Amino acid sequence: MGFWDIFVVALMPVLKVLIITGIGLVLALDCVNLLGPNARHYLNELVFYVFSPALVCSYLAETITLESLEELWFMPVNILLTFVIGSFLAWIVNIIARTPQHLRGLVMGCCAAGNLGNLLLIIIPAICDESDSPFGDSSTCTTNGDTYTSLSMSIGVIYIWSYVYVIIRISANKGTGTSDENGSSIKSSGQTSETRAESTTEPLLHSITLEEGSDPVDSSITEPEGKETFLQRIRKKAKMRTCGIDLRMLLTPITIAAIIGFVIGIVSPIRDVLIGDDAPLRFIESSIYLVGEALIPSQTLIVGANLLRGLRRSEVSVVMILGIVLVKYIAMPIIGVGVVKAASHFGLVGSDPLFQFVLMLQFALPPAMSVGTITQLFGAGEAECSVVMLWTYAMAAFSLTLWSTFFIWLVA
């Protein structure tokens, strides 16, 4: 394939993302108001609790086997490297931009966590469906692509809610100088609960309860003052060793669905009953997949609607935005090429060009939308996050196309 052919293949999925995102932005305008705060809230709940788990579970159940796990083991390592390298580069950005304390976690989250979910679910199938796709037969390419994107989404969710959640919480606490006994930042009295509810962009706000002034570790045990039970000491030590990570953050619906999908795919008797044209209960998997197909358009519409908030706020450092853009779209992709090529040289990733393409693309994706949700949880940097999302996703239209073209040429 020539350069122009590769460029067109890489451009098609980005144009689809832009069109659907633009529709979401228009639907969120006050004059239309079909995706206002309440509509986004309820659609977010459907995406998070229904569509995403259904798609991840059906994809993993159909495509994951013990043999494929042996081939895909490097992907969790690759995603971990994107978080580690992105955090280090974000630390440099914070120093150069003199980022305020309460926004440093936001910068680290945006640089570390990429949109490993819905963008890949659009880009990979679109490339596979192209007649000139460099990744071979459309059916095989789509099947393998579904496996890679489902695993990417599942691993990404775990990393985001076990790492980005913690660093943004710590940053918010240091910025405000106050925290409750759970380590969660206490919002200032000037911000009402109504304002917070209207800014909700993802349903996790309703699945997490931050009770100010109460400690769930001690709430179930009442002892005389000055005394501490053995069970309390054990719980406190466990809390310290996990660095305050709320394990409920890891058990999101997507994570649970991923576990179920892994079990179905790996355990042969269960797989034979549910998966395949001759499976007696194949209608169950087909129904779940049908529900999950609503994820891609719904989540992309929400992305566009949420970006509208960024148009209405501009109180954010230009240097900070420029630093995040340079990290996400120049430094990280270049490093990603080096990482994947080194892994390929040492025989860690196999010879599948599509797998190598996905690994490289994970270094070039815009920030995860879940970062916005986490900033809302602690009331630190919500408006700034909207501005960052607006500019990074606008730049992604050009960056993703160019890097996808280069990655395809490199692996194919």
Task: Describe the structure in brief.
By secondary structure, this protein is an all-alpha fold. About 70% of the residues lie in helices and about 0% in strands.
Descriptive account of the structure:
Belongs to the auxin efflux carrier (TC 2.A.69.2) family. Keywords: Auxin signaling pathway, Endoplasmic reticulum, Membrane, Transmembrane, Transmembrane helix, Transport. It comes from Rhodamnia argentea. This protein has helices spanning 3-28, 37-63, 66-72, 74-97, 101-112, 118-129, 138-176, 193-198, 204-207, 230-241, 247-250, 253-266, 268-274, 282-292, 295-311, 318-345, 353-361, 370-378, 382-411. With 412 residues, it is mostly helical. Helix content is 72%, strand content 0%. 46% of the residues are buried. The protein contains 19 helices and no strands.
